[in-house]
Specification:
This protein is an all-alpha fold. The protein folds into three domains: about 35 residues, no CATH class; about 30 residues; about 30 residues. It is built from five helices and no strands. The radius of gyration is 23 Å and the shape is elongated. It holds the Pfam family NikA-like. InterPro entries: NikA-like (IPR053842).
Length: about 110
């Protein structure tokens, strides 16, 4: 199946150090060397496994914080709102902002 999609064959000459580096980086990314080279050519950030994992973690974190915010809002709407809820809401929003900022910094430095 892959041969019908990738039908053009290219020969590549590398120095021994370069070949070793390519092998190490491909293995670290959990890919074969050909897939890793294709990834470098396309430069699609969503293709990078590190970014996909980071974004998945960010989505989970945002969902957890969203649940906390929904509970606080429900308490507010049912007149059970306390000052502690406001402090918790502020803490949740700070955590959300910090988490998004960390993810943006990590993605920007890749």
């Amino acid at each position: 199946m892959a041969d019908s999609i990738h039908s053009v064959r290219k020969t590549l000459r590398l120095m021994p150090g370069e070949a070793k580096e390519l092998s190490e980086k491909a293995a670290a990314a959990g890919m074969c060397e050909a897939d890793y080279l294709r990834l470098l050519i396309t430069q699609k950030p969503s293709d990078y496994p590190e970014i996909r994992i980071l974004l998945k973690e960010l989505i989970n974190e945002v969902n957890a914080i969203g649940n906390n915010i929904n509970q606080i809002t429900r308490n507010y709407n049912s007149k059970l709102y306390r000052m502690e809820d406001r402090e918790l809401l502020c803490a949740c929003m700070k955590k959300l902002n910090m988490t998004v900022r960390e993810a943006a910094d990590k993605i920007g430095s890749m």
